[in-house]
Amino acid sequence: MAEVKSDIEIARAAxxxxxxxxxxxxxxxxxxxxxxxxDKAKISAAFIAEQKGRKDGRLILVTAINPTPAGEGKTTxxxxxxxxxxxxxxxxxxxxxxxSLGPCFGVKGGAAGGGYAQVIxxxxxxxxxxxxxHAITSAHNLLAALIDNHIYWGNEQNIDxxxxxxxxxxxxxxxxxxxxxxxxxxxxxxxxxxTGFDITVxxxxxxxxxxxxxxxxxxxxxxxxxxxxxxxxxPVFARDIKADxxxxxxxxxxxxxxxxxxxxxxxxxxxxxxxxxxxxxxxSVVATTTALKLADYVVTExxxxxxxGAEKFFDIKCxxxxxxxxxxxxxxxxxxxxxxxxxxxEDLGKENVExxxxxxxxxxxxxxxxxxxxxxxxxxINHFIADTxxxxxxxxxxxxxxxxxxxxxxxxxxxxxxxEELAHKVVELAESGKSQFSPLYPDDMPLFEKIETIAKSIYxxxxxxxxxxxxxxxxxxxxxGYGTLPICMAKTQYSFSTDPNLRxxxxxHTVPVREVRLSAGAGFVVxxxxxxxxxxxxxxxxxxxxIFLNDEGFIExxx
Amino acid sequence: MAEVKSDIEIARAAxxxxxxxxxxxxxxxxxxxxxxxxDKAKISAAFIAEQKGRKDGRLILVTAINPTPAGEGKTTxxxxxxxxxxxxxxxxxxxxxxxSLGPCFGVKGGAAGGGYAQVIxxxxxxxxxxxxxHAITSAHNLLAALIDNHIYWGNEQNIDxxxxxxxxxxxxxxxxxxxxxxxxxxxxxxxxxxTGFDITVxxxxxxxxxxxxxxxxxxxxxxxxxxxxxxxxxPVFARDIKADxxxxxxxxxxxxxxxxxxxxxxxxxxxxxxxxxxxxxxxSVVATTTALKLADYVVTExxxxxxxGAEKFFDIKCxxxxxxxxxxxxxxxxxxxxxxxxxxxEDLGKENVExxxxxxxxxxxxxxxxxxxxxxxxxxINHFIADTxxxxxxxxxxxxxxxxxxxxxxxxxxxxxxxEELAHKVVELAESGKSQFSPLYPDDMPLFEKIETIAKSIYxxxxxxxxxxxxxxxxxxxxxGYGTLPICMAKTQYSFSTDPNLRxxxxxHTVPVREVRLSAGAGFVVxxxxxxxxxxxxxxxxxxxxIFLNDEGFIExxx
Lengths: 559, 559
Fold this sequence. Notes:
ATP binding (chains A, B); ligase (chains A, B); 3-stranded antiparallel sheet; 18 helices; ATP-binding (chains A, B); Rossmann fold; Formate_THF_ligase_CS (chains A, B); Domain 2, N(10)-formyltetrahydrofolate synthetase; alpha/beta; Formyltetrahydrofolate synthetase, domain 3; homodimer; formate-tetrahydrofolate ligase activity (chains A, B)
C-alpha cells in the first residue's frame, strides 16, 4: 500500500495561490477583497450589495447519514465535489462553516475536509481565523454587560432579575463557567444573581449573523433578542436597552464572508458556525447568497445527519433566505453502513456485506426524507481504504431500489480526479429542472403541530409528548406573534430517535420535548429533546498539553 | 476663528496610502507584511529576526506632567513629533499602544492622537484592530480553564484551591464579573470557588507579550506565570500544567507588531497595551526594537505622567530590553499648568499667568526626575486655542531656569509644520551624545529599598510604610530568587503622592504599600499603593447607546 500522508502534511505541502488571485477568478476586484494575511480575505459588503441584480447559480446541499464513530466525511465530500465541479468546467464555490477555537484545546482540531479534499490554511481556520468568532463573543458579552449595568443603575425597564435570559459566552471549553453567581462583592458590583457562560457557537448572535441578509437586517434581529422578562412576563428586548447599534458596529467586519481556497486553488467561502443542535448549523446566508451570484455552482453542507442538518437547512435557512436548492448529495460510507448494521468499531476492517445491507436502512430513510422536500438526491459513497468491492456494490444496489443512484468517490485519495462521476451526476440532476423545493410545513401551522410534523415525517416517531407548561409556553408565543417561526430541533445526532444508541431506522418511538426556547432575534423556536450541553469541558489530558510551536514556527499537536 | 474639525472628521478626510507602500518606505518587502485590510499589516517574525545585526536608530521617549482634566496631548505630541522628524528629513517611526475595546462602550473611544497629529484607521484601532487583544484574552482564559480542569481531574499538582492566583479576563467593562463564584451546579462542573474577571489590558499575558523579545522568550515567560500556590505555599507555574505551548500558539500572530500610518502617511507601529498601573504601560519591546532597526528615529510614549510612565519605561522596559533612550520630551500645556496652579476647569478660558507660574512646579519636578536617568530633556508645550502669549512665555521662562528648553508646538492645528522646532531640538539633543542612560536603582538592591528609592527620589515622599506581612512577602520572594526583579508601582496618576487631589509638587508625604503582587512571567513586582480597579464598570448612560452604523456604513457615536 502506498504511504498515506496526514491531512496536515498534505495541507502544508499545498501550493497556495495569493488570495487576490482566487478572488479574481470570481471577478472580485482587489479593492473589494480585504486581505487577512496573503491567504485569507473578506469580501466587502459594498461589492456584495452590487451583485443584487445578478442571476443565481445552482445550489447543492451536501448532507449525510447519522454520524457514526466510523466517520463519514461530509466536509471532505463538500470540498471534493466543489473541486470536481471546477474540474469538469463549472465555476464552483464551496461554502462551509468556521471552526470553533475552544474545542481544539480539548481534543484535536478539526481539519476543513481531509486527504486531498481540504480547505486551507488549516491552522488559521482552527485558531483565530479572521476574528469573526471573537467579534461575536464581544457583541454577545457587550449585551450581557449592558443588562447588568441597566439593572445596576436603577432598572428602568423593570427587568425581573430572576428572569434574565441572556447568559455570557466564551470560545473556550470551560466547565467552571457553566454555572456561576455574578455581581458578588457588595454594592459597587451590582445585584448578585445566578448565570453562566455558553461556548460562542451556541450564542444567538452567531445564529443571527448567519441568518441576516445584510447589516440592516442584522441590526433589526439583534434588537429583537429577548434578554429578560418583566414581573408581568412581558419580554424585554435588546433594543429596549439600546444595545443593537453598538452590537452591529462590533459585527460589521464579521458580517463579510471569508474567502480561502481548496488544495486545488478553487475558491471556498468559510463563514459562520452556529451550533447544529440549539441553532441551525449552517454557514451564513450572506456567504451562500453571495457565492450564488458569483458561481455556476455552490456546494454547501449542513450540520450532523440529514434528519437534523438537512431539515434545518431546508426549513430554516432556505425558507428564511428564499433559497431553492437544486440537488442534494447524501454522504455515506460502507464502514458506517456496517456500524448501522450492528458491527463494532474494532471489527470494521473485516468484510461484512450482510451488515452493510442491514445498515443501509439508515441511509434509505435519509434518501426518502430529503426527497420529501422536493429535491433530487444522489448518494456519495466516500471511499475508505479497507472497503471491499462487494460492500460498495451492496450500497449501490440498495440505493437503486429507492430510485436513486449511489456513486463511489475517491476524492480523499485523488482529489477532484476521484469525484468526476459524482460531479457529472450532480450537474445532470441540477440542470434537469426536477427540483421542486418546498419546506416541510407551512409558516402558519401551529408550533406544536410543526414539531409533530418533523418528528413523524422525518424521524418516523410515533408521538411527541410534552408537559402542559411546554404547550402553554408555545401557545403564549403564538399569541405574542411568534407562531409563524420555524422549529429548530435539538436532538441527538446519532439516531433518528432521541436515544443515541438506536442506530438504523427506528420507527414508532416517542419524542419527549423537555424544554422550548425562543430565539426571537434569530427567528426560530428551539425544541430540546435531550441533554444539550452548551459549554463543553476539557478531558483529563487536554490536547493543549501537546500543542506548541516547533523550531520552524509550525504548530505541532493541533491536528 | 476658523472652523475646528473634529478628530474623526479629520481622520475620515485623510488620504490613506496602501499599507504596502508605507511598509516599503521602511524597506519591508510585501511578502513580509501580513495585511489586515488595505490599511493595517503585521510585520512578519521572520523579517524581524533577519534585522538582528543592523544598527539601531535613536530612541525618543515622550512623557508628560501628571494628567489633569485639561488634557495634555501626549499621544498627539508623539505622533506630531514623528511627523515633524520625517518632515525635517529623518526617517522616523512612531511606536504607540493599542486601545482597549471594552472602555469604548462606556465613554467615548480614544483617538490615537488628535487634530492633525493622528494615527489612522481610527475606527479599527478602537475596535478589533488586528485581533491582538482577542488573542491575549483567549490565551489568558485557556490557562484559567486548564487550571480548573486540572483540579477537576484530580489535582495532581496539589493546588490549594483557596489560593488560585489566576483570574479570567474579558475586554469589556463588566462590573458583574469582578467577583463571582464559579463551578456551581454539582459534580460535573467542578469545585465551587470564588474568582473573577479583570479587563484584558490588566492580564499578565499582556505584560508578557509586551516584554518578550521573541516567541521563545514569550513561551518561557508564559511558563513562568504563577497560577496558584500549594498548601505548603510553594508556587505552581503555568508550565507545571503544560499550558505554555498552547498559549504561545494562540499568541503567535499577536506577537507580530502592527503597522499603520499617520495622517501624513508616515509609518506608525501600534502594538500592545498593558495597564499603566498594575503593569508597565508601554507598547511592546518587539515593536520598539524592530522600529529601531528600520528607522533613524523612533518616537514612543509611556502611560500616565513621567512619575509612573517614564519611570517604568526606564526601569522596566529599557532595563529589560537593553534600550538606551537618547532624549525625552515632556508634554505640558499652559492649561494644565493653570490647573496645577489651583484654577478650576470652568475657569481655564481666562488668562492667569500667576497660576501658570505656580503650577509649573509639577512640570519642573518631572524635568528634574527624568534627568536623574541621564537622559536629556526638552519640554513640548502643546498649544491650545485659548492659550495666551504671556502664559506660554511663563512656561518657557520657568523651564529655562531648570537648564532646559520649552518649545511651543502647534501640531494639533498644523500637523508636522507646527512641530518643526521641537523636531530640530530633539535631533540636536539626541545627536549630542549627552545621553548617559542608566536605571534608577540596580538589580541587586533589596525589593523594599527599590520601592523606597522610587518613592523618595521620584515622588519626593518622606517615607514608605508597609505591614509586616508585605515586608515578609517581599523577603520570601527574595529567597525564592525574585529579588532582582524591578518594581512596577501602582499609584494614582494624578499626583506625585498617593492622594489624587494633591496637585503641584508635594514633598514629605507618606507612601503606604497596601499589597504586593508577583508577576513572575512578566518579570516585575507590582506594588499597590491605593485602590486599583482592574475591571471597570459602565456609566449610567453608556456611550454604546449612541453607537451605530449610519446609512453610509460609517460608525457614529464611537468618538
